[in-house]
Amino acid sequence: MKNLEMPNNSINVFDLEAVAKTKLTTLAFDYYSSGACDEKTLSANMTAFQDIWLRPRMLVDVSNRNMTTTVLGQQISAPIMIAPAAFQCLAHAEGELATARAADKFGTTMVLSTLANYSIEEVREATAGNLWFQLYVYKDKGVTRSLIERAEKAGYTALVLTVDSPLLGRRERDVRNKFNLPAGLVCKNLIGNYLEQLPAGSNDSGLASYISSLYDTSLTWKDLTWFKSITKLPVIVKGILRGDDAARAIEYGADAIVVSNHGGRQLDTTIPTIQALPEVVEAVDNRVEVYMDGGIRRGTDILKAIAFGARAVLIGRPFLWGLAVAGQSGVLTVLEMLRSEFDLSMALSGCQSIGDITPDLIASENRK
Ligand SMILES: Cc1cc2nc3c(=O)[nH]c(=O)nc-3n(C[C@H](O)[C@H](O)[C@H](O)COP(=O)(O)O)c2cc1C
């Protein structure tokens, strides 16, 4: 493997998580790492990958390997993107700016969260790389419309509509910590709408209170038609776990789908994403691109997701650990670690290019 700059001798994302834990406040570490309720889905996202066995091909010339691919027509250096994650200044003062610059250096797409600490415009100015904007839908249609218009005007190339969060999952660690943003941190995208602060003094997670009072819980498929009518950008639907929902998303105009359970942070005991992926891929039947996230911690996880039909994966917590440990260079290190592991997995399974990563690489008992 390539010699990477590895903060504190970390050689994989688990090492970086351990270092990040020493750098973050309990409130921030719990917010980043936790899942909903008993955190069953959080852990199952990872163990489900470990329960899948590979059938590598031998004696293939793997002296030249190509990991590049495209997402919605944009080339990326490896099929790994940055998932939307709120409040990145809890990890590092440069927050989303550092993440965006690292993603650009690596050659991939970053998805900026509605709940970012830096604004749509600030992140756009920080990098020349490809950016998508993740949308949470506010009851106030004017707020939603303005976020879409700003992302479009700033040059973001797609909208990622998160559909699994009409309310916030019950993240008990955040409830116990009465999660809120430290003084001075706000959701900069919402400044001017009086929505930039989480409510203070709540006996619950401040984020849960914020979302339950402001997000539109009445959202349905027909709203997807509305989004499509007010933007020229492709709309990617994030949070799909069933084939019938994937088919419906396409029917209502989705341009791509992200199979996701929000990293186990919403409805606990939902199916691990790698198990949901084949059903979605089958229902989509190549009509749009399918991405997935949840539990990607190893190069073999990426190989398995692609073998099951994902075009690319997104990572959440791993890049946050890199950000906490070393800002921009930490995020880049995480991306390079995963790319390097993925490259080795391709070589050891007889794959020269992404197109060689086919379902027969997966053991038949895991393909049922
Ligand atoms: C701290 C944190 C904040 C997140 N914030 C958002 C968000 O603002 N919008 C969103 O659509 N998903 C959000 N997610 C979910 C991620 O986009 C992604 O689905 C998930 O992290 C993938 O799982 P992984 O962390 O195991 O890689 C967040 C996840 C984490 C860990």
Structure description:
It is built from 13 helices and ten strands. By secondary structure, it is an alpha/beta fold. It has one domain: Aldolase class I (TIM Barrel, Alpha-Beta Barrel), CATH 3.20.20. The strands form two sheets. The protein has an eight-stranded parallel beta sheet. A two-stranded antiparallel sheet has the order 1-2. Strand 1 and strand 2 form a beta hairpin. It is globular and about 60 Å long. The protein starts with 12 loop residues before the first helix and ends in a 20-residue tail after the last helix. The mean pLDDT is 96. It binds flavin mononucleotide. The site of flavin mononucleotide has 23 residues, from helix 2.
Short descriptors:
368 residues; alpha/beta; TIM Barrel; 8-stranded parallel β-sheet; two-stranded antiparallel ribbon; 13 helices; globular; binds flavin mononucleotide
Please summarize the sheet with the most strands: 8 strands, parallel
General shape: globular
List how many beta strands DSSP finds: 10
| CATH superfamily grouping | Aldolase class I
The fold-level CATH name is: TIM Barrel
Order of helices and strands: HHHEEEHEHEHEHHHEHEHEHEH
CATH class: Alpha Beta
**Class inferred from helices and paired strands:** alpha/beta
Helix content: 40-55%
Mean pLDDT: 96
Strand order of the largest sheet: 3-10-9-8-7-6-5-4
CATH architecture: Alpha-Beta Barrel
Catalogue the unreliable spans.
none
- Gyration radius, in Å: 19 Å
What's the helix count? Answer: 13
Ions, cofactors and other bound molecules? flavin mononucleotide
* Number of structural units classed as domains: 1
The portion of residues forming beta strands comes to 5-15%
How far is the N terminus from the C terminus?
A: 34 Å
